[in-house]
Design brief:
Blueprint lengths: L1 H27 L1 H15 L6 H26 L7 H17 L4 H24 L5 H20 L8 H12 L1 E2 L2 E2 H19 L1 H11 L1 H6 L4 H27 L10 H11 L11 H20 L4 H23 L1
Antiparallel strand pairs: 1-2
Helix pairs in contact: 1-14, 2-13, 3-8, 3-9, 3-11, 3-12, 3-13, 4-5, 4-6, 4-11, 5-6, 5-11, 7-11, 8-9, 9-11, 12-13, 13-14
């Protein structure tokens, strides 16, 4: 009897510990994964915590994170946008060519945003009124826009010239104090997107459509207009990323943005945005962007090739999704 009572007591303690661990995972989610990743990175590479390295990570998070925020809007509605990388590519070469021809940056900036807006709106119209699957519509845009970028640039990088490049470098490579300007731009966009998603009617419509599109339609939500707006937001944010990209590299490459769409999707998914729609948020995407940037940075510091890094990135995505599923149980 005494032995049985001791066994029962041990089992209760074991169950209590398991419940505590489960509660911790449920409360912290991917934030816990980011903390663990940072600790491992600091142990593996002392350079990781150096101020210069942390600033580099922040710059990397800013450019890809801006695209990830736009992707979050689209995925919450149950869609996907594969064209964001190609939008960056086509805007990069048009921007560089326009600057090289003598056009001022004050004219090129709104022009780039307009191209992003139109590209996103076309995707949205194809999905909303053409009733095309988002995957197919944006895949077609991805191919067409990349071809357009290659045609404009003739497959070669376009330099706006050293004098012009030095004038626009502030946007991608400048600082305000110790804070990189891309990080400031990213922070402002995070705040705007957060309030739109959480406190505006449009944000509620985005979640409603992703949760149940027919229920949203019956409740009076304009499905088509909301879908077009979400893809337009994704296109505009891709244009912002392209402007920062060209300013930082001071050259417009037709291959700019290649693979960014996969990173953007990964950020959103790692951050808890459901590919089925109806769930997700800005803060989650921010954490997802940080996880990907920290992972890439520490692998670079350890001298691991970019090809092998893709393997780790895939494993992290699977792990993040499993944590989210565990969290919901």
């Amino acid at each position: 009897m005494i032995e049985t009572a001791v066994t029962t007591e041990k089992r209760k303690k074991s169950e209590t510990l398991a419940n505590r661990l489960k509660n911790i995972v449920q409360k912290m989610g991917v934030s816990l994964a980011l903390i663990i990743l940072c600790i491992i990175a600091a142990i593996l590479s002392p350079t990781f915590l150096s101020p210069m390295n942390l600033m580099n990570i922040a710059r990397q998070v800013a450019i890809s994170g801006i695209v990830g925020l736009g992707m979050t809007f689209v995925i919450i509605t149950g869609g996907i946008d594969l064209s964001v990388g190609s939008i960056i590519g086509v805007i990069a070469v048009i921007e560089a060519k326009a600057l090289a021809s003598g056009m001022s940056f004050s004219v090129v900036l709104p022009l780039a945003l307009l191209i992003g807006l139109l590209s996103g709106a076309i995707n949205g119209i194809g999905v909303a009124y053409g009733k095309m699957q988002p995957f197919i519509m944006t895949l077609a845009s991805m191919v067409a826009l990349r071809g357009m970028a290659m045609t404009i640039a003739q497959g070669q990088p376009i330099s706006p010239g050293s004098e012009v490049a030095s004038k626009i470098y502030w946007l991608g490579g400048g600082n305000v104090g110790i804070i990189p300007i891309p990080v400031i731009v990213f922070a402002l966009i995070i705040i705007i997107c957060y309030f739109i998603l959480r406190f505006s009617f449009f944000g509620r419509y985005v979640f409603a459509i992703g949760g149940n599109v027919e229920a949203a339609r019956l409740s009076g939500i304009n499905i088509e207009r909301t879908q077009i707006l979400t893809y337009t937001i994704s296109g505009i944010l891709s244009a912002v990323a392209a402007l920062i990209w060209v300013s930082r590299l001071t050259v417009g490459e037709p291959t700019a943005g290649t693979g960014v769409e996969l990173d953007a999707i990964a950020m959103a998914v790692i951050g808890g945005t459901s590919l089925m729609g109806g769930e997700g948020g800005v803060i989650g995407t921010l954490i997802g962007a940080m996880i990907i940037a920290v992972l890439a940075n520490v692998l670079n510091l350890l001298g691991i090739s970019p090809f092998s890094q893709q393997i780790f990135k895939g494993l992290i995505i699977v792990l993040a999704v499993l944590i989210e599923r565990f969290k919901k149980r």
